[in-house]
Amino acid sequence: MKQICSKTYNINDDIVGRITFGKSNIFCRTNEILVRKDINKPLFGYSATITENESFSGMGKPYCIVSSIEQFQEGDVVVLNKQGEIIFVYEISSNHNAIMATERCNHRCVMCPQPPILKEKDKTLFNLNLVSLFDKSTQEIGITGGEPTLIEDNLFVLIRHIQKRLPKASISILSNGVKFAEKEYAAKLAKCHHRDLQIDIPLFSDIAQEHNRIVGAKTFYKTVQGLYNLALFRQRIGLRIVVHKQTYKRLPQFADFIYHNFPFVSQVAFMQMETTGLAKDNIKELWIDPFDYNEQLREAVLLLADRGMKPYIYNAQLCILPEDIRRYAQQSISDWKDIYIPECDGCVLQGQCAGFFESNRDAHSSHIKKVENISDDILC
Ligand code: SF4
């Protein structure tokens, strides 16, 4: 999540609020945080004030001094904490907003970008309040973690709440699928009757032991059962495969396995690894230049595409992909951590290319080279 630093005053507990520049009715301000470049004292009713004015007089009310208010937009939702961090939990202009259902997880994936924690206070009430602050016309919302199913039936409370408060939003849940091995749990998801919900499930190998080693748990067959149960209840499923040194060699065999065993999945995403969290800790065991797995990636992608399935390539740079699979690449990196590097200067594919995770600034392919001309058929 995007985060900026500030000097904070009179903030003891976290304050969550919707950003406003002062357009709201006086009776609707309790959940709002006023942002003004130059203001001298708090206005009535707002839960806090954010300003650039160093001589702001808080009069005992919570406020933050920032160097610039340019990063805020009317309708963003932020958390202010006493350490001075302003955390953007929702950005009105982003299509990558997500709710973290829990930071706990029952897997310990070797390349997890966000290592799980063991204990936490239940976040459901906080998340329900958060959703109520989001703009009603939100088009997409993710539910992520940790492992979202660890909040048990509260996951369905959250889905129903999103359905009610954000009726236009599609929902994408990122889950390891293990919990859906319980048929009743899969049935409960189906009973939410959400009109546009996809559940994305990572699977890392066609060999059970390999998958289990990568996720740090003996759950391959539970995830497989979860996939069948979700299909039984006609849920829309995506598969996700993070490609790294331990997974790239068998991509073609794995694609064939997916075709034969999970023909019902709506998409299969091959993902370049984000080198943060445990992926950074285990970089020696995981890193391979993405250019060097092009042969296996190409074979897997074309195998699925030729058989009528829908493969995608996430987080990849177009200049290193073989031209005949560039059309499967998606702009998939969340805006707040998406960058281009100096080698991209002048490249005609900027904007269409996914670019890089901020954390991959130093761990990226050595084959990045700007594209100066583009033939029309490369991306379509
Ligand atoms: S040079 Fe940069 S912007 Fe251009 S295709 Fe490569 S990674 Fe993408």
What does this structure look like?
The chain is an alpha/beta fold and 380 residues long. It has 2 domains: 86 residues, 3-Layer(bba) Sandwich (Glucose Oxidase, domain 1), CATH 3.50.30.10; 212 residues, TIM Barrel. The strands form 3 sheets. The chain has an 8-stranded mixed β-sheet with strand order 1-8-7-3-4-5-6-2, with no helix packed on it. The protein is globular and about 65 Å long. The two termini are 32 Å apart. The model has no long low-confidence stretch (mean pLDDT 94). Iron/sulfur cluster binds next to loops.
TL;DR of this structure?
This protein is an alpha/beta fold. It has nine helices and 17 strands. Residues 317-319, 340, 343-344, 347, 349-350, 353, 368, 370-371 line the site of iron/sulfur cluster.
Number of strands: 17
Content of β-strand:
15-25%
- Reported CATH architecture of the largest domain: Alpha-Beta Barrel
Largest sheet: 8 strands, mixed
H/E topology pattern: EEEEEEEEEHEHEHEHHEHEHHHEEE
Number of helical stretches of at least 4 residues: 9
Number of domains: 2
Tell me the CATH superfamily of the largest domain: Aldolase class I
CATH class of the largest domain: Alpha Beta
- The assigned structural class equals alpha/beta
SSE map:
Layout: E1 3-5, E2 7-9, E3 15-20, E4 32-36, E5 48-51, E6 63-65, E7 77-80, E8 85-90, E9 98-100, H1 124-133, E10 140-144, H2 154-165, E11 170-174, H3 183-191, E12 197-202, H4 208-215, H5 220-232, E13 236-243, H6 251-261, E14 267-272, H7 278-281, H8 283-286, H9 294-306, E15 311-314, E16 338-339, E17 356-357
Parallel strand pairs: 3-4, 4-5, 5-6, 9-10, 10-11, 11-12, 12-13, 13-14, 14-15
Antiparallel strand pairs: 1-8, 2-6, 3-7, 7-8, 16-17
The protein binds iron/sulfur cluster (SF4).
